[in-house]
């Protein structure tokens, strides 16, 4: 694999001081899995570029696996975990540029503490979920992202794109910050590591994520992917990050768990597809005022706020801490008074009548009803459809029939789900609610539909009849 870092800071050749690698030398660094070579294709006052090339030795990689490794006897024959090249690159980069990652430079400390223009390029990088995942991870950090998909085979264009991208990142950022972000996010993009993970991985994540991870809007996704879906490690990491960010584990969007169940070929996150689908419905309805009931940490509210046609937006959740996270995500303390009047957040329970729920063109119940005890569901129906009476209600919920396609899933998709319905059950419920409260209902699917099992998510659009 290859990584290049360029700068136009003047004098640009000071990049050599920051990286502690002399521009006039070609240096090799032996790794347990191969050799990392550092050289400078260009080193001038106006522009300087350093290149890190990692050559992986598969024989050395296999031999380096210790006999204490849980799967030592068979792993080198049947498990491709060892060949997660992006993880190998991250480890090599962390070793070769360890002093630069720490932000230390005795001869140029002021420069090491400063943001400088950087362009980082990786010609071939695994990116599960497609280029949009790279945008989600790097853009909130201030990078301008160019992630170009690479064809699976140029001779057979009908085969489509591979899971690899050509990644280029441009920003004015402190070099140490950029290196630490790359160290975390390269294996996150690949969603794989070349070694078995233990509790020490949580400490690595927190050290490298210091100063940026707790405020990243995709913190939960990054944590889960970095820790390779190890639920126990993920819960520990999220709890510690919650303490650092004044958040709580309950404020993390549970949709990330569901995303991990998606097959790689369809890894456009299902929660992103839901957000897209519901936003399209609201625009079709020409709604001007929208309330997100059960808004959680505000992922969908962020989409609403960024859509100018919505002139009045509200988010409600039973968790006050989730609302605190939503307020930070929306930067409510920083926006103008006019904008703050447009957005309202308040605590409320959907099973108790609340006048604040009323007066909106549309209400959204996205992945909410399945978290309600069945015996309390009628109370929610009365509060939303009978009391608040929005012009339209958009409801999404999992399709339980689709669950058989999820590898390693036992039970329901999330431990807090009280039930999950198949299509007939959802049709019966939505039909009954519509007839009871004077709404017409249209049902759709969200996500890649199976011919027999249907789509992974069910959507119902209720429109109040005159």
TrEMBL record:
<keyword id="KW-0943">RNA-mediated gene silencing</keyword>
<keyword id="KW-0694">RNA-binding</keyword>
<keyword id="KW-0460">Magnesium</keyword>
<keyword id="KW-0489">Methyltransferase</keyword>
<dbReference type="InterPro" id="IPR038546">
    <property type="entry name" value="Hen1_N_sf"/>
</dbReference>
<dbReference type="InterPro" id="IPR024026">
    <property type="entry name" value="3'-RNA_MeTfrase_Hen1_bac"/>
</dbReference>
<dbReference type="GO" id="GO:0001510">
    <property type="term" value="P:RNA methylation"/>
</dbReference>
<dbReference type="InterPro" id="IPR024740">
    <property type="entry name" value="Hen1_N"/>
</dbReference>
<comment type="similarity">
    <text>Belongs to the methyltransferase superfamily. HEN1 family.</text>
</comment>
<dbReference type="Pfam" id="PF12623">
    <property type="entry name" value="Hen1_L"/>
</dbReference>
<dbReference type="GO" id="GO:0003723">
    <property type="term" value="F:RNA binding"/>
</dbReference>
<dbReference type="GO" id="GO:0031047">
    <property type="term" value="P:regulatory ncRNA-mediated gene silencing"/>
</dbReference>
<keyword id="KW-0479">Metal-binding</keyword>
<dbReference type="Pfam" id="PF13489">
    <property type="entry name" value="Methyltransf_23"/>
</dbReference>
<dbReference type="InterPro" id="IPR026610">
    <property type="entry name" value="Hen1"/>
</dbReference>
<protein>
    <recommendedName>
        <fullName>Small RNA 2'-O-methyltransferase</fullName>
        <ecNumber>2.1.1.386</ecNumber>
    </recommendedName>
</protein>
<dbReference type="InterPro" id="IPR029063">
    <property type="entry name" value="SAM-dependent_MTases_sf"/>
</dbReference>
<keyword id="KW-0949">S-adenosyl-L-methionine</keyword>
<dbReference type="GO" id="GO:0090486">
    <property type="term" value="F:small RNA 2'-O-methyltransferase activity"/>
</dbReference>
<keyword id="KW-0808">Transferase</keyword>
<feature type="domain" description="Hen1 N-terminal">
    <location>
        <begin position="1"/>
        <end position="242"/>
    </location>
</feature>
<dbReference type="GO" id="GO:0046872">
    <property type="term" value="F:metal ion binding"/>
</dbReference>
